[in-house]
Amino acid sequence: MLRPHVDLLPRWILLICLLILVFSGGRILPSCAMIGAPTGGARDTIPPQIVGEEPPNLSVAFVDGEKAFSFSGNRIEIEFDEYIVLRDALNQIYISPPTEEDLKTELRGKTLRIELPDSLEPFTTYTINFGKSITDLTEGNIQKRYKYVFSTGAFIDSLYVTGIVNDGFLNEAVKDLPVVLYEIDSVDQPIDSLPLLERPSYYAVSGEDGSFRIDYVKSGSFLVFAFEDKNSDFLYNPGIERFAFHAGLVSSDSLPEVDLRTSTEKRPPQLRQGLHPKWGRISFPFSGEVDRISVEGPVPADTAFRESVIRSSSNRDTIHLFFNNFSRDSLQFYLTINDTVLDTALVLMRSYDPPKPAYRLSATPFLHPGDSLFLFGERPFRLVKPDLTIFRESDTLGMRPGQVDEYLFKHDLAIRYEEKSSSKLVIYPNQIEALGGIMNEDTLTFEWKTQNDEDYAELILQVDTDWEAPFVFELLRDGREVFERYSFTSDWKYRLTHIEAGRYNARLLEDLDGNGQWTPGSWFDRRQPERYFFYEEAITVKANWELETVWKVLEQAFHQHDASDSTHTHDGFED
């Protein structure tokens, strides 16, 4: 009688293990029946490679009027040298020009099958872009550059559009940004809604250096657009996605080269739910930047709510209302935003313990010539006892600053620079009152220092431009903090005294709207982002030195970072 097959399985495994033991020289091997990926060795960094295509890439449908190939059920097969994984195929794999139906994909072993829709247009060159969908099975290496191109006509369209994508603020290359073309059939065709509602006709992705090339384009006129496509829907989402566009239409027949500068479009601010996140503070968050706001309320009045101070967040998308007290469970406010938008906010109030606000000095740790000493607070505050006590070296000094009875986030203490000294400010208990009746319970001590004149440098700045416009020159400390800012309209020269030794950077804003700050682009207003020109070298100043820097800015060299003609003269001296 035959035994069931399942009972024979352990004998086969035992036999295999015995054979392995014999041929291994008697050494016992662990996990003789375990199968796994090999370990050790160099990590595989090579993406999957294409070893076969059917029909071949760049195939045409007709040769000398005869049918050159026919898809078997409108199918393309692409064979790779290893097993692959398709990631987010529905969004990453895209055919241009777009078809009415989506492509259908299927993996069989190392072969990718693509079912083409029935809606292919005759005599048209199609490009299948795979985005970042193709990765190998083990390491996830991405095949980024592969495209499959075919024509339903007798030739492959050979025109192209090239260009570069730069960040509109930093003027640096932007990589991995989709750049698309929308075909424009007539000069009367509306284009406002194209990026928002229509899928593009062609697309490519910018490389490491920001450059892009859209190949296999047919003859015609196109709108060139770029956007982040965070939703992977090939539709532009204003105010959410970084974008760029070319100012006019381009003709593919001229093989155009296009410069694109990215920014994020400002959205009209929309009020979200008002919050009471902390004691004595109400926050109004917005979906966009708020330039101007007025707050009326609470309505109806709350007898305990008598004083308030408004402050904006650093990125101007949240307005904070600091107040003294409340008695109602909810408060309603009327907000006028940017002079035009009126909104109503109902805020549910909560109970918190009063905070202990922190305070700091503007000198960190040095007070420089020409500066005044400011006291900053986390909440609006005032000096209820304005007589200050200052200890400088072995002396005890008194100071009574003016205008300190108003609730502000910073107060000028009217303390000026004194050469080479160490000073200490002592604020005694109950001398400061934060809004809401919060007194300082402890003694607060603040220290600062000053230096000698020879510890500073003198910097002479000259900016020569070959065109006139409203400009804003900015000197940055350590490449981050704006140290000085000056506005002018033509060649400009300025002498800065008492500059701290260190490294500085300079940039020049072409302030076309005259608002004193960089303005991003707008697709709806057809406005490009304002241009920033960057001084390519760091400006290094040393103590007790005079440095003169001349920056010749050429408008035509905007994207050529090494083309600004800059000359320097250095006159150093020591006493």
User: What is the count of helical runs?
Assistant: 3
Evaluate the radius of gyration: 34 Å
Tell me about the largest β-sheet.
5 strands, antiparallel
Q: What is the global morphology?
A: elongated
Low-confidence spans: pLDDT under 50, at least 5 residues?
1-9, 17-37, 561-575
Counting DSSP E segments of at least 2 residues, the number of strands comes to 45
What distance separates the N and C termini? Answer: 113 Å
Which band does the percent of strand residues land in? 35-45%
Backbone structural class: mainly beta
How helix-rich are the residues, as a percent range? Answer: under 10%
Give the overall average pLDDT.
Answer: 87
